[in-house]
Specification:
Blueprint: H1 2-24, H2 27-34, H3 38-41, H4 48-73, H5 79-96, H6 98-108, H7 115-138, H8 147-167, H9 170-188
Helix pairs in contact: 1-2, 1-6, 4-6, 4-7, 5-6, 5-9, 6-7, 7-8, 8-9
């Protein structure tokens, strides 16, 4: 029962964090939503900070595991197809999973008291993605560019596109993705080193 309640609290907290931000989220409001007294929250989490850190750590680990699984599952897929699928999958995960949405939001706009930790955690995700992109570049013989350079270029684009998800909309993200990657494929990845 205690674990179930803990998960309920985290689920409610994600909604509050997305709606009100870190500063605007109140433990009393979360407690009220899950039907417990604020004092009972402390049996599960010592503070709002502890609650938010646990949620963010779980979401980051989940997304790092997703990256590993996605790139393993699509190993050998031509890079262009792989990236197209990845862009769509990222949009879908962001749109349908509030924990993913929160991870990206906190990675781009971390609350002041947790800034260093959340940036470090987002960097773990980001560096893992970069590493997997390098491997994907190295395994596609049709792409004639240095895998490190190609991966860094695509990684930079993907981080920029992430901002479109956070501050724009999924539709705008897809439009920007299609425009950007079509230009990339027209020349940058097919030509000179």
């Amino acid at each position: 029962m205690s674990m179930n309640r803990r998960e309920e609290i985290k689920k409610a907290a994600v909604g509050h964090l997305l709606q009100y931000g870190y500063e605007g989220t109140k433990l009393a409001d979360i407690a009220d939503e899950v039907g417990i007294k604020k004092q009972s929250m402390y049996a599960h989490f010592a503070s709002k900070k502890e609650l938010v850190v646990e949620i963010h750590e779980e979401a980051t680990k989940q997304e790092i595991a997703f990256l590993t699984s996605f790139f393993d599952e699509h190993r050998g897929t031509p890079l262009r197809e792989l990236l197209d699928r990845f862009v769509v999958e990222t949009k879908d995960r962001y749109s349908n999973n509030r924990n993913v949405k929160l991870m990206f939001l906190m990675g781009f706009m971390p609350p002041e008291p947790l800034q260093e930790l959340f940036i470090t955690m987002f960097d773990l995700y980001s560096h893992h993605l970069l590493h997997l992109l390098e491997l994907a570049f190295a395994h596609d013989p049709t792409v004639r560019t240095n895998p490190k350079r190609g991966a860094l270029a695509v990684h930079t684009i993907l981080e920029g596109l992430s901002a479109k998800l956070i501050f724009g909309s999924p539709d705008y993200y897809m439009q920007a993705s299609e425009a950007t990657f079509s230009l990339l494929w027209e020349g940058l990845l097919r030509g000179d080193d």
